[in-house]
Design goal:
The chain is of the alpha+beta class. It contains 7 helices and 14 strands. It is 21% helix and 26% strand.
Length: 253
């Protein structure tokens, strides 16, 4: 239940508001939680989210603003995931964004989420599912375009079919699938680079940072950060990788 999750997020002491990412809509820093005389009020300020309510905790709350317990990982629920071919619109999106070849040759496990109406890219670690990343099918839907199902912080990686030991750090899962025709694809899926991503990227002999042109500043920062441990180069894209043909991808470096 959502109320149980709110309690697990460790509400602050009385009259002190806590702000954090919303676990319902996944927007950044939009959830406010306050504890007033033992009653916990929560409200998401995102216009597309209707999460709000209150819950009474009978236990004395002793956490301070700087002593919050770690957030628990949400278990990955696979019950609403079905084969990609069950939804034609989902299949068409994968084909249009140059990802069908990776799906067809089992380099990417891509499914359809019946409940959220999303194309879903499965994230694995040690050959086990630890997370999933979903892209909504309807752009008119007010929910976030991308949704992380389990907050594992492990990257979506699409292994290449070639002998390349170069990894491309790209913006999203579609681009990771597209570039895997030539090199390994690792989807950033955000603006920060978690330590779990560094562990994965450090296993390659070379990294190419290839983000969209509007993220050039971020791309430069990531290149400097990664170059400390792995030979890293930067390419400025004139076109999204997921919209490139094979020849264009081969000419990237």
């Amino acid at each position: 239940m959502m109320q149980d999750l709110i309690l697990q997020l460790a509400p602050p002491p009385s009259d002190v508001a806590l702000r954090m990412d919303c676990p319902y809509c996944n927007h950044k820093n939009t959830l406010s939680i306050t504890n007033t005389n033992g009653t916990i009020f929560y409200h998401c300020f995102s216009a597309s989210c209707n999460l709000k309510g209150r819950v009474t905790d009978r236990k004395e709350l002793k956490f301070t603003k700087h002593e919050l317990p770690p957030r628990k990982t949400i278990p990955l629920d696979l019950r609403s995931f079905v084969p990609l071919g069950r939804n034609q619109k989902a299949l068409d999106m994968v084909i249009k964004r140059n990802s069908y070849e990776a799906y067809q040759h089992a380099r990417a496990d891509i499914r359809y989420d019946l409940r959220q109406d999303r194309v879903v890219f499965m994230v694995t670690k040690d050959k086990k599912f630890v997370d999933a990343v979903g892209r909504k099918l309807d752009d008119h839907d007010k929910r976030p375009k991308w949704f992380r199902y389990a907050r594992s912080k492990h990257p979506f990686v699409c292994k290449t079919k070639t002998k390349s030991d170069t990894a491309f750090l790209v913006e999203d899962c579609f681009s990771a699938c597209a570039v895997s025709q030539v090199h390994h694809g690792v989807a950033l899926m955000g603006t920060n680079l978690p330590n779990e991503y560094l562990t994965t990227l450090n296993s390659y002999s070379k990294i190419v940072v290839a983000l969209d042109r509007d993220a050039s500043k971020k791309a430069i920062e990531l290149t400097k950060q990664l170059r400390v441990s792995v030979p890293t180069t930067l390419v400025f894209l004139e076109k999204d990788i997921k919209n490139m043909n094979l020849t264009e991808i081969q000419e990237l470096i």
